[in-house]
Amino acid sequence: MTRTLTILGLESSCDDTAAAVVRHTPGRAPEVLSAVVAGQTELHADFGGVVPEIAARAHTEKLDLCVEQALTQANLPLSELDAIAVTAGPGLIGGVLAGVMCAKGLSAGSGLPLVGVNHLAGHALTPRLTDQATFPYLMLLVSGGHCQFLIAKGPEKFTRLGGTIDDAPGEAFDKTAKLLGLAQPGGPSVEAEARTGNPTRFRLPRPLLDRPGCDMSFSGLKTALLRERDRLVAQYGGLRVQDRADLCASFQAAVADVLAEKSRRALTQYLDLAPVTPTLAVAGGVAANQTIRAALETVCAESGTQFLAPPLALCTDNAAMIAWAGIERFRAGHRDDMSLSARPRWPLDLTSPSMLGSGKKGAKA
Amino acid sequence: MRPDPLILAFDTSAAHCAAALLSGDRVIVNRHEDMGRGQAERLMPLLEEVLAEGGATWRDLAAIGVGIGPGNFTGIRISVAAARGLALSLGVPAVGVSTLEAQAHGQTRPVWSLVDARRDHLYAQHLGIDPAPAVIPASDAADLSPVIGPHANTALPSAIARIAAARLAQGGDIPRPAPLYVRAADAAPPRDPAPVILP
After folding, report:
1. pLDDT over 80 (residue A361)
2. Less Cβ around it within 10 Å: N or C end of chain A?
3. To probe the interface with A, which of B39, B42, B86 has the most A CB atoms within 10 Å?
């Protein structure tokens, strides 16, 4: 299919409600005509993490408002679009469900086709939206909820090389901030604190570096940090500001080391495919961390690999990536009907063994 | 142009998927399907069947009526989110109607309207007396009279459609439908406090 496509995307799988309109003419760079994100950080601030029921309540009453705003900003009525794309999983089911139902209402009333999109595919296809990356490229998806290496081989074809077996790094940043009395979300506050800290003062573990492969683990790192904190608090009757900065810097260095070394291993596997333009792309909020980004750039430079980091607004959860993944799926002939399900679990790569939630309900991501 | 305005109403606030089509003051279709789960997959196909049975299409609708609860949180959101999407795409108003009010439609007031709230509790509203619903222990219901509920009746979507029609006839602003949870979200602040920070 070679015609121009304009697609509305909806995203509500975690704590951001988003809507966006993206247009694409084959052979040209895609255009983000509008992108609206309504965050919920303040709603969850008191609870030290995203509360699924609170998130679902907010999504239900914000989705249609975001869609209206996105259409107004794009200066297009629904009738001039070609399809509606919506995140159908994986994620917090209450929010995903609200998004899927709103999208079904929009689709039924407008007669536009519906395309269910995998949230992870949205992130993984973003380098094609922002930089027209060509397949195959290596993707590191690193956010509050996810951490995995994927080789993107086609719009619906991903091979997972490895990923976290417990917490995601963004989650570890949030927990670190909580343990050290810093503001949520933890990514920016820990990074800011780390700037005045000594990254070598505390020897925090680099889990799984002693084992082959690309799997990672971050929950032990958090426990080691808690132990150091408790030791300092017991010694001084509280946490001294400089100790806190040193803890932040040491924690951040550990995460950066793990991601860099595992990226090196993932790159080796990826380069075996002999890609024409070797590329490592990142997505997810953690990719905004400057120390981590610098470590990844160094690894890429070693092998002459191009490093791609989309602008932050397209790295964190957004709907432009869902609209774009919708365009790719739509061009591949994919359509969903009104029985489309919201899926809390939906791994991108169905062939590799699952890492998370490999119980009877199947892999989470 | 149809002679009478058409209103499509639906509800998934309990273990059912239900819809009705109102033409003027006549209910031309009323469907109620018992359903423990799967409302998200069933709702839109059911609405299409209801429209087809009434000889109508989406474009013929003058308004949407939707049950906003109280009831099952997820169920309420399924219908409210769909109603808001439909209202936006069709350019028609969506009217949110309380389950407590809908099931007591046409009854002499005052009357106690009750809906199952699980965990041995009920959502209760003394209609005609008290404008706000509350959560009460199920054991307190024995003292209340007269009472409607707590079991959903199959005419619920028809009542939602009629109440929506009456509100539209009154004119004025119709707020977007919003879930009526009554209960606050279950969420507790973190247990371990942050450490004391020393200079």
Report:
1. no
2. N
3. B86
CATH number at A146 reads: 3.30.420.40
Asked if A106 has any chain B CB less than 8 Å from its own CB, the reply is: yes
pLDDT tens digit string along A210-238?
888 999 999 999 999 999 999 999 999 99
Contact check, Cβ <8 Å, A64/B87: yes
Q: Are B176 and A61 a contacting pair at CB < 8 A?
A: yes
Give the per-residue SS3 of chain A.
Answer: CCCCEEEEEEECCCCEEEEEEEEECCCCCCEEEEEEEEECHHHHHHHCCCCHHHHHHHHHHHHHHHHHHHHHHHCCCHHHCCEEEEEEECCCHHHHHHHHHHHHHHHHHHCCCEEEEEHHHHHHHHHHHHHCCCCCEEEEEECCCCEEEEEEEECCEEEEEEEECCCCHHHHHHHHHHHCCCCCCHHHHHHHHHCCCCCCCCCCCCCCCCCCCCCECCHHHHHHHHHHHHHHHHHHCCEEHHHHHHHHHHHHHHHHHHHHHHHHHHHHHHHCCCCCCCEEEEECHHHHCHHHHHHHHHHHHHCCCEEECCCHHHHCCCCHHHHHHHHHHHHCCCCECCCCCCCCCCCCCCCCCCCCCCCCCCCCC
What is the residue range of A227's domain? 137-309
Q: Give the mutation candidate from B77, B183, B192, B196 for the A interface (greatest A CB count, under 10 A).
A: B77
Query: How many Cβ contacts (< 8 angstroms) between chains A and B?
Result: 148
The number of distinct structural domains making up chain A is 2
Q: Mind listing the pLDDT tens digit for each residue in B155-184?
A: 999 999 999 999 999 999 999 999 999 999
**Is A101's CB within 8 Å of B199's CB?**
no
Contact status of A48 with chain B (Cβ, < 8 Å): yes
Cβ–Cβ gap A108/B44 under 8 Å: yes
Q: Which of A108, A181, A340 minimises the CB distance to B86?
A: A108
The residue from A271, A293, A309 where one domain ends is: A309
Q: Which of B82, B176, B189 sits opposite A101 (nearest CB)?
A: B82
Per-residue pLDDT tens digits for A91-119: 999 999 999 999 999 999 999 999 999 99
Residue A131: per-residue pLDDT: 96
Mutate to test the interface with A, among B44, B51, B92, B186 (most CBs of A within 10 A): B44
Q: A14 with A153, same domain?
A: no
Q: What is the pTM of this model?
A: 0.94
The per-residue pLDDT for range B126-144, each reduced to its tens digit, is: 999 999 999 999 999 999 9
In a domain, A40, yes or no: yes
Q: Among partner residues A53, A106, A340, which is closest to B73 by beta-carbon distance?
A: A53
A353: cis peptide before it, omega within 30°?
Answer: no
In a domain, residue A184? The reply is yes
User: Is A229 at the interface with chain B, CB within 8 A?
Assistant: yes
